[in-house]
């Protein structure tokens, strides 16, 4: 053991394992354990580790050699060359910041070990002066948008047609095309994120006694909602609102699902019984949109955007109802997803003005 200032320093590594590479790997192992203790998911931890390794490869420096200039050069490259989105840059900066927080925490003693072995200590390289700020609530690309109702119908029609085209050609993949068409319709019909719809199971549907017309598909239990930081996936119940949607699910379970994995509980599995990969859905989605020649701005998440917008604009649902359906904690978040048309705005204005006029007339008639 070494001593400094009368205090015993507990070295995390064996004395014979003091190579730079070994110290770096031990840092990552300790950081992984700390994040697991903080309830971060394995996927989040793996993503953060990949970023740290990429940062080391890009700079050619180990963490105890990092400088603020390294961070500035790396993110300048990511923005100008890789063209990362604003939110992604901010997330990457957060990942590096929490890694540096871990290394510079005296409780873990990495500063002492690195100073003794390498003559330098880790420092915080993401500060208030070089960190991207979160300036506004809505940072999605301006081109991102929902479907119009005409576009959405055309998209669903093409997805159905693809099944017939595959069957007519004699190629394999008709069941997969049928599955993906049902996934797209389900994502729209219940306003689901990609991760939510790909993790659905047959047991997630149940009856809604106040809406018996939907049969066994009146309520959908979403169990893989977007998680808060350090928390498990958020659960929510989504009420069925479209009269056609139960028929879509029932037909898939009866005629499509048995061809893929009749013994598993996944609603949209692959032939191996695993949830269909989101990357597969994105590729097929893009193929359909490109074939239809739709203007830019549509992605898989546009199905959820369309659900929210259409519930407001075409069906007149209450804002609070829609907010609960899609699992937003704040009403302002739901508002960011809405993209109402000028016709809808005009009709809403006319409705309010008519109510005001009716109240004024009624008040005048009540005067003596």
Automatic annotation (TrEMBL):
Pfam families in the record: Phage_integrase (PF00589)
- The answer to whether the entry has keyword DNA-binding is yes
GO annotation terms (biological process): DNA integration; DNA recombination
Q: Which stretches make up the Tyr recombinase domain?
A: 151-350
Molecular function in Gene Ontology:
DNA binding
Q: Which keywords are on file for this protein? A: DNA recombination, DNA-binding
Q: Which InterPro entries match?
A: DNA_brk_join_enz (IPR011010), Integrase-like_cat_sf (IPR013762), Integrase_catalytic (IPR002104), Tyrosine_recombinase_XerCD (IPR050090)
Q: Which family does it belong to?
A: Belongs to the 'phage' integrase family.
Q: What is this protein called?
A: Site-specific integrase
Question: What is the organism of origin for this protein?
Answer: Nesterenkonia salmonea
């Amino acid at each position: 053991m070494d001593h400094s200032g009368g205090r015993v320093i507990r070295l995390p590594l064996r004395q014979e394992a003091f190579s730079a590479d070994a110290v770096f790997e031990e840092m990552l192992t300790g950081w992984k354990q700390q994040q697991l203790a903080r309830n971060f998911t394995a996927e989040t931890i793996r993503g953060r580790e990949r970023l740290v390794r990429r940062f080391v490869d890009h700079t050619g420096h180990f963490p105890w050699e990092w400088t603020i200039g390294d961070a500035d050069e790396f993110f300048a490259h990511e923005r100008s060359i890789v063209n990362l989105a604003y939110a992604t840059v901010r997330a990457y900066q957060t990942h590096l910041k929490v890694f540096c927080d871990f290394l510079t925490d005296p409780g873990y003693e990495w500063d002492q070990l690195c100073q003794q072995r390498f003559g330098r200590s880790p420092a915080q390289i993401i500060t208030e002066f070089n960190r991207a700020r979160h300036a506004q609530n809505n940072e999605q690309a301006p081109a991102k948008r929902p479907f119009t109702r005409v576009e959405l119908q055309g998209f669903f029609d093409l997805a159905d047609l693809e099944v017939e085209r595959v069957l007519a050609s004699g190629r394999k993949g008709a069941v997969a095309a049928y599955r993906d068409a049902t996934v797209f319709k389900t994502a729209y019909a219940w306003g689901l994120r990609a991760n939510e719809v790909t993790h659905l199971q047959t047991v997630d549907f149940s009856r809604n006694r106040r809406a018996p017309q939907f049969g066994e598909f009146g309520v959908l239990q979403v169990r893989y909602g977007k998680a808060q930081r350090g928390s498990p996936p958020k659960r929510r119940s989504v009420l069925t609102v479209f009269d056609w949607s139960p028929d879509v699910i029932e037909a898939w379970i009866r005629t499509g699902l048995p061809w893929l994995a009749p013994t598993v509980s996944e609603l949209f599995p692959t032939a191996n019984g695993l949830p269909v990969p989101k990357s597969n859905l994105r590729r097929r989605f893009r193929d359909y949109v490109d074939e239809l020649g739709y203007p830019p701005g549509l992605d898989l998440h546009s199905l959820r955007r369309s659900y929210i917008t259409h519930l407001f604009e075409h069906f007149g649902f209450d804002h609070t109802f829609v907010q609960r359906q899609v699992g937003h904690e704040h009403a302002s978040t739901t508002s960011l997803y809405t993209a109402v048309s000028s016709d809808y705005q005009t009709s809403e204005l006319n409705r309010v003005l008519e109510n005001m006029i009716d109240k004024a007339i009624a008040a005048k008639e009540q005067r003596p």
